[in-house]
Amino acid sequence: MSDIQQPNTPDEKLVQEEFEKLLNDYLNTNHRRKIERITKAFNFANQAHAGAKRRSGEPYIMHPLAVARVVCKEMGLGSTSICSALLHDVVEDTEYTVDDIKNMFGDKIAQIVDGLTKISGGIFGEQASAQAENFRKLLLTMNSDIRVILIKIADRLHNMRTLGSMLPAKQYKIAGETLYLYAPLAHRLGLFTIKTELEDLSFKYEHPTEYEFIHEKLKATEGARNTLFEHFAVPVREKLEKMGLTYDMKARVKSAYSIWNKMENKGISFEDVYDLFAVRIIFESLPNVDDKNVCWDIYSAITDIYRIRPDRIRDWVSRPKANGYQALHLTVMGPDGQWIEIQIRSRKMDDIAEKGFAAHWKYKESSVEEDTELDKWLQTITEILESPDPNALDFLDTIKMNLFTAEIFVFTPKGDIKTLPQGATALDFAYALHTNIGNKCIGAKVNHRLVPLSHRLSSGDQIEILTSRSQEPQPEWLNFVTTAKARTKIDAALRKIRKEGARLGEEKVVSILKRADVDINTSTIDKLALFFGFPKREDFYYSVEKGDVTLPENLKKILREKNDNTLFKYVKQALRMGAKDNSQQKENSKPDKGKDKPKYDKTKPYVLSEEEFHHNYVVAQCCKPIPGDDALGFINDDGTVVVHKRSCPIAMRLKSSFGERILSTQWSSHKNASFEATLEVKGIDSLGVLNTITQTISNDFNVNIQRLLIEAKDGVFEGKIKLKVHDVEDIQRLCVTLSKIKNIKSVGRVAD
User: Fold this and answer.
1) Euclidean distance between CA atoms 437 and 427, whole angstroms
2) What is the mean pLDDT of the chain?
3) Residues linked to residue 420 through DSSP beta bridges, in sequence order
4) Cα separations (Å) of 344 from 191, 351, 666?
5) Of all helices (H) and strands (E), which one includes residue 433?
6) Is 583 left (phi over 0), alpha (psi -120 to 50) or beta?
7) Strand ranges for 668-743 from DSSP E
8) Which of 225, 282, 383, 554 is deepest in the core (most CB within 10 A)?
9) How open is the CA angle 565-721-206, to the nearest 5 degrees?
10) What are the respective helix, strand and coil percentages of the chain, to the nearest 5?
11) Where does residue 544 fall: left (phi above 0), alpha (psi -120 to 50 degrees), or beta otherwise?
12) Which of helix, strand or coil describes residue 162?
């Protein structure tokens, strides 16, 4: 079994070459030499996967080989991990069992392969919806082996490197899950290089246009960055050489994903990202001198040359991060008037920062046993996970395990369990029990304590709903419910209340018109409604019934003065609002339970289309995509396609938890529909600027402004404008035009 077969075919030759590269990687490590064991695992896996191909067309064994190379070369693990990586898909994909692995390779490897087989479904699989605590327990119970998680990360890294052969819907699912779970987990375990690559690969598939844009920008600005670095480096090199140090100094550019993330979070352009690159100084340790002292000596030398920014000093040399990261960070004003971040590390610190705790092994003087070192590493990881100090752990925040906190479990007074999404309120719970209970809800008791309807529930809460026959749903309820069911039921009840109010308001208007001796017809009532600023009669009637509008005595005079131009403007608005209502009606309607759910072809993009104001999809309210946005579809329980922006956090959770329901999408022409979008405008406060903005939007673009909020302070203003547009092109044209207005400094689309 340990003999290597001579390759006969091109595929066999390819496999053999890859295996030899793996052996070379292994021979370059500091681990005990166990070549026969690795060869035996390779031959066994090669025979088990014989004939199987990956989607790309290459032999399947190339995947376990690639994972084994990541485990060996990029994580620094030894023969046990390499063998486990080679065998990691054998039990799942072939006829062999864990017992077969145990008989041939022993308990330890069998245990790791068994662990990998188990987490290929469940917590890492298609139906992943366990809680964060379960995931934490999973790591803690791996005291037999943290290697299960490490090999799983290596497996995901290779899958991301070969994601191009997958269908788009599968790409979104895997990329979203990677960004949501695996990249933060790699970061937590100190695997910085792998974490960065996982983020960039996810970004590449989720936002290809933005990825290319940033890469082109980085290429275009490379010369300027190099010049900046050289100007900075000349006096620093002189100082360091006088100190007798052996070192590397290089400029490390921020990853594309990090740059995009900063642009998105801070609402800035590429040009405004000031820390595009950091200077890294990596020195060789000096005999009998503490690395920490050398770091501070270099710090002192640099601050003798350049002015420091005191609020940007980060001392992770004296107190390393929980994942083992050590370095001294500072930011100085460079010779060209730009802030430059500097990271000072020893060679050992740099290896640990890039490879995690595994890099410690490289510095052992004699060859090491992987199991012994892993016990020490595992102990460190376990301490991180069990630490009660939130600063040392910050487990949920760091790993962002919303994927596993997507659900909470709460109880009725009788002890029945109800499952709700994370963030659900007492009102969501009321509607989960029954629509009538929700509609009549006035409050709740959570764990026997009175709370408002907006109170957020936690797992384990026991809830009693308080109702009143006189209660009716209120519009503000929509602000704090999170479940689709509650939102739909509240919308339906509000429409019913509004319809009844409009009917009573109509009776009042007709009565007043009769008393004023005015002809009662639709034209007259439309003119009257428009005079009070209502494009639709129903809104006008409802406001009269509520008392928001009081009709004056001189109705005949008002109607005579109303001119046709103003009327025409409002009629156009009314048509737009009609489009909204039809679209809203579509969103709130659900197919009958008895009907068959539609089937979707995932091999090609789902075309998002509209016919007579009706869409074959629903716009997600969390991110409100519009035609032209990078979007994806999620198939709801009732078969409806809900469209999210690809960058939406909710969409990320859906991709991770329900990847099989994700559709790649393509916008069709939306000539009649209009969509909500919000622009943020900033500039110098000056007389008439607000008037110019509103006139430009209304007159030049004939766009309906829904809400305008401008605040001025200390000579500058900023504001948000909510409006209705057709697509992203409308937004882009608006931004270009508004940015040309005098004193406006920036215009951009933001989340509502």
Assistant:
1) 9
2) 77
3) 408
4) 19, 13, 47
5) helix 426-433
6) alpha
7) 675-684, 705-713, 716-725
8) 282
9) 125
10) 55, 15, 30
11) alpha
12) coil
Element at 607 (helix H, strand E): strand 606-608
Spatial CB neighbours of 253, under 8 Å, sequence gap ≥ 6: 218, 225, 276, 277
Residues with a known catalytic role = 92-93
- The phi and psi torsions of 252 (rounded to 5 degrees) equal -110, 120
Q: Rounded distance, CA 40 to CA 79, Å?
A: 11
Element (H, E) at 411: strand 407-411
Residue 495 corresponds to which amino acid? R
Q: Which of 644, 648, 613, 600 is CA-nearest to residue 726?
A: 613
pLDDT of residue 160: 92
Whether residue 697 contacts residue 723, with contact meaning beta carbons closer than 8 Å, is answered with yes
- Are the C-beta atoms of residues 720 and 267 closer than 8 Å to each other? no
Quick check: 254 and 218 in contact, CB under 8 A?
Answer: no
Q: How far apart are CA 708 and CA 710, in angstroms?
A: 7
Nearest-CA neighbor of 675 among 620, 611, 636, 633? 620
Which one, of 69, 67, 65, 88, lies nearest residue 28 by Cα? 69
Q: What sign for the dihedral angle of Cα 188, 189, 192, 196? A: negative
Spatial distance between the Cα atoms of 476 and 455, rounded to a whole number of angstroms: 14
Residue 179 phi, psi (nearest 5): -65, -30
For residue 56, the 8-state DSSP code is T
Which of 177-191, 451-465, 546-560 has the least mean pLDDT? 546-560
The pair of three-digit structure tokens given for residue 47, joined into one six-digit string: 């025979």
For residues 429 and 410, give the distance between their C-alpha atoms in angstroms, rounded to a whole number: 9
Least trusted range by pLDDT, from 32-36, 231-235, 306-310, 322-326: 322-326
Q: Which of 64-68, 237-241, 351-355, 476-480 has the lowest mean pLDDT?
A: 351-355
pLDDT at 68 over 90: yes
| CB within 8 Å of 598: residues ≥ 6 apart | 639
- The dihedral over CA atoms of 330, 336, 338, 344, expressed in degrees to the nearest 10, equals -20
Give the residue among 331, 243, 313, 238 at the shortest CA–CA distance from 283. 243
Question: What amino acid occupies position 64?
Answer: P
Closest CA to 192 of 314, 69, 64, 359: 359
Residue with tokens 């409002």: 570
Q: Which of 102, 18, 106 is nearest to 60 (CA)?
A: 18
User: What distance in Å separates the CA atoms of residue 197 and residue 337, rounded to the nearest whole number?
Assistant: 31
CA-to-CA distance for 327 and 78, rounded, in angstroms?
27
Which DSSP string corresponds to 617-656?
SEE-TTT---TTS-EEEEE-TTSPEEEEETT-HHHHHHHH
pLDDT score of 238 more than 70: yes
Alpha helices in 271-423 (DSSP H): 291-305, 347-355, 370-386, 390-393, 395-399
